[in-house]
UniProtKB/TrEMBL annotation:
Keyword list, A-Z: Amino-acid biosynthesis, Arginine biosynthesis, Mitochondrion, Transferase, Transit peptide, Urea cycle
InterPro entries on file: Asp/Orn_carbamoyltranf_P-bd (IPR006132), Asp/Orn_carbamoylTrfase (IPR006130), Asp/Orn_carbamoylTrfase_sf (IPR036901), Asp_carbamoyltransf_Asp/Orn-bd (IPR006131), Orn/put_carbamltrans (IPR002292)
Protein name: Ornithine transcarbamylase, mitochondrial
Domain Aspartate/ornithine carbamoyltransferase carbamoyl-P binding stretches: 3-126
Catalytic activity from the UniProt record: carbamoyl phosphate + L-ornithine = L-citrulline + phosphate + H(+)
Upper taxonomic lineage: Eukaryota, Metazoa, Chordata, Craniata, Vertebrata
Pfam families from the UniProt entry: OTCace, OTCace_N
Length: 299
């Protein structure tokens, strides 16, 4: 999918080609949580490829409330070619996937955010020309973004050093799997409560919001727990000389200061744009037999 993302970006953005690969296809977009990048990238990307995206909020479709998940999955399967669902509970996605006869794509859940990680990896691929051997340094919450990195980094030969405050560590079941993947792929996995230890020698400094949607009541407690976790130039001093910075947005200043966020080392805006090219690749790979024309990058 990363290869396909690079191919679509090159052909459409660089060469100006029109590729109606999804003409006649429709996509159901279920959003229980508000969104900027996920909605915009999916809606514009699907349309750019000739398809018809249909956006559904909680006002339009209240998952499992006014209609069962099973019934919703079956109705959507009869009217659309795929569904992207941004939900609170991973279990809702699992039920939709089980009951639907069309692809169900995780647009974000409490456990994972895989389409964000695709965009992150495409951004790093473009910057470093290869992913293998990079050290990712996560500094922040043990959340869905970190979980998705833990599930994938080792498979690309990337090392992961993650710092989370005590009580905010990643899910134990995810950690167990990540340890297994690191062992299988010969990569390093470090989990710590010390931000500078995680940043030490890292090529890519990564953080995310400390307070996700649905956690607003915990704000005061979380801000206190995350003291010392702001990414600054002090953090960058212990990183590798070629360090870069990623943040999936929206960003708050307590997570990363302006000096790092707006520095030439920050890749956050190319990262945001790549949400579009990567979600387009997901759709194309699921709904067509298109093969990339661009020479396969070295990952």
């Amino acid at each position: 999918m990363l290869w396909l993302s690079a191919d679509l970006k090159f052909r459409i953005k660089q060469k100006g080609e029109y590729l109606p690969l999804l003409q006649g296809k429709s996509l159901g977009m279920i959003f229980e949580k508000r969104s900027t990048r996920t909605r915009l990238s999916t809606e514009t990307g699907f349309a750019l490829l000739g398809g018809h995206p249909c956006f559904l909020t909680t006002q339009d479709i209240h998952l499992g409330v006014n209609e069962s998940l099973t019934d919703t999955a079956r109705v959507l399967s009869s009217m659309t070619d795929a569904v992207l669902a941004r939900v609170y509970k991973q279990s809702d996605l699992d039920t939709l996937a089980k009951e639907a006869s069309i692809p169900i794509i995780n647009g974000l859940s409490d456990l994972y955010h895989p389409i964000q990680i695709l965009a992150d990896y495409l951004t790093l691929q473009e910057h470093y020309s290869s992913l293998k051997g990079l050290t990712l340094s996560w500094i922040g919450d043990g959340n869905n973004i970190l979980h998705s990195i833990m599930m994938s980094a080792a498979k690309f030969g990337m090392h992961l050093q993650a710092a989370t405050p005590k009580g905010y560590e990643p899910d134990p079941s995810v950690t167990k799997l990540a340890e297994q993947y690191a062992k299988e792929n010969g990569t390093k996995l470090l989990l710590t409560n010390d931000p500078l230890e995680a940043a030490h020698g890292g090529n890519v400094l990564i953080t995310d919001t400390w307070i996700s949607m649905g956690q607003e009541e915990e704000k005061k407690k979380r801000l206190q727990a995350f003291q010392g976790y702001q990414v600054t130039m002090k953090t960058a001093k212990v990183a590798a000389s070629d360090w870069t910075f990623l943040h999936c947005l929206p960003r708050k200043p307590e997570e990363v200061d302006d000096e790092v966020f707006y520095s030439p080392r920050s890749l956050v805006f190319p990262e945001a744009e790549n949400r579009k090219w990567t979600i387009m690749a997901v759709m194309v790979s699921l709904l067509t037999d298109y093969s990339p024309q661009l020479q396969k990058p070295k990952f």
